[in-house]
């Protein structure tokens, strides 16, 4: 049995075995372990298997122990190594099919090189019967006193068992084969609210296990407790619900173990535990994990925004200028910053509206929370609501996970709505509600979330005109325009040009790794004479372009800095064209002419490094929107192929 290689069998008939093995009082086998061969057996062994000796001689020993080959080999090797072994782990199959549980003893037989093993086999059931008969005879011989001693012994054992049942913290109860309660320990009484005498004899399932958690019927045939004494198996359930006497339920885990009598289940013992505290702890832990995950996701997004903010190139850490217009803006910032009032910043593109918003935020009590910027002109119409308020997983196609919206990110801080006039009319009502109630719902979610957000909006549009044309809600305008600030164009703060130009020049030299260049008085005068339709952004771009192209000195005598074109002879001169104050119509005409010059110079290209947007110092989306508003088609400026 310990060697798997096949060997040529030779007749083995030791004369010793023919005489002594028949006289052994117990079933016996003599086996050649190396050949897995039955050499000899006695009549008791044949009777145990219900077969003849002749049919067993020469058979494989492992064939007598079906399904136990590995264990038998290990047992045999132990016998050969130690000289003897004992086990209760084996069984034989009788000829009629019933199994015989064994107590098996083994010893080495013959010489060491023979590898012969003698097995003595005992029927464990027969041994129990003999032992019980012996003990009964012993008690009978002992007389009445012995019976009384045994009775007292059983009483003591029962009392000890009762003490154990009373001390156990888990609930324990028993049921018979019909499901009727047979006993109940005090812990079970406390948890269920029933006294033992109230439950005794009643069908336990109908009293304490009749319904699921949601109140729906729990059929008796599906009950794992009853399945234990139907199939004779132990059933463990990690989460289920039992019912109190008062009609309330509580979560439990339990084990239902069958009670066996002569191999047949006659009932079950149920050990259960109230897991309310554990489930509550798990629920709180799950909520905590969800909150941690939400905060983690929020911090990741905030970090992304902060990284974006750090990588963005802001022109100054403070507002630069000494003109009366700048001083007036600074005074208004100082007035509104300590409050939570909404602010509407108006002005042309490139005048520094975002700089004003940042100055308000930094001077407010919200400076320790982020300033979240939203470029309303760059958000696709279909994603406005998700961008502002967030969404939950599965809210729409492509929503693969929960997303935190800009309002939620700005909670406790400031939300800067740049180009607020670009928000679609149908979504302005939802924005108005959040501004009024400081509450919102994520897309696809019914839960209402509260936030504390200060809103600063900016636009280069005339919102009053947009209201008249039904493109902007008047109530939203008044909600945003609590405290208006106008970001004045550069042509109305000419005195600030020298200071701004010097600031931009120093920054451009450092950025482009160029030697420091000096700004001459003639350069400043040239810059002052320009109309600056692109405002401060255009001034910065001009300075940077000069740093790139200049030699030892700057040279601002460029076509891009010529004076505004004079009106034609047959045109009526623009009103106030000789002064520094222009009408709104004059500004529109100047802007239109400037855009046309940019498109002409770039061949109608709006996007790209050589596009009009770069030349004008504005975002391509903003330029496209402005061209559309002015009814200018960039395609008309593209060169025609001959």
Protein model, in words:
The chain has 23 helices and 20 strands. With about 650 residues, it is an alpha+beta fold. It has 4 domains: about 15-130, PAS domain (Beta-Lactamase), CATH 3.30.450; about 170-275, PAS domain (Beta-Lactamase), CATH 3.30.450.20; about 315-490, Rossmann fold (3-Layer(aba) Sandwich), CATH 3.40.50; about 495-635, no CATH class. The strands form 5 sheets. Strands 1, 2, 3, 4, 5 and 6 form a 6-stranded antiparallel sheet that branches. A 5-stranded antiparallel sheet has the order 8-7-11-10-9, with helices on both faces. A 5-stranded parallel sheet has the order 13-16-19-12-20. Helix 15 packs across helix 17 (about 475-480) and helix 18 packs across helix 20 (about 535-550). The radius of gyration is 48 Å and the shape is elongated. The chain starts with 16 loop residues before the first helix and ends in a 13-residue tail after the last helix. Mean pLDDT is about 80; it is low at about 5-15, about 310-315 and about 560-580.
Beginning-to-end CA distance, first to last residue: 99 Å
Percent range of helical residues:
40-55%
Specify Rg, calculated over alpha carbons: 48 Å
Number of helices: 23
Shape: elongated
CATH A-level architecture of the largest domain: 3-Layer(aba) Sandwich
- CATH homologous superfamily classification of the largest domain: P-loop containing nucleotide triphosphate hydrolases
Largest sheet: 6 strands, antiparallel
Unreliable stretches (pLDDT < 50, length at least 5) are 3-17, 310-317, 562-580
Q: What is the CATH topology assignment of the largest domain?
A: Rossmann fold
**Class inferred from helices and paired strands:** alpha+beta
Would you state the CATH class of the largest domain? Alpha Beta
Query: What count of domains describes the coordinates?
Result: 4
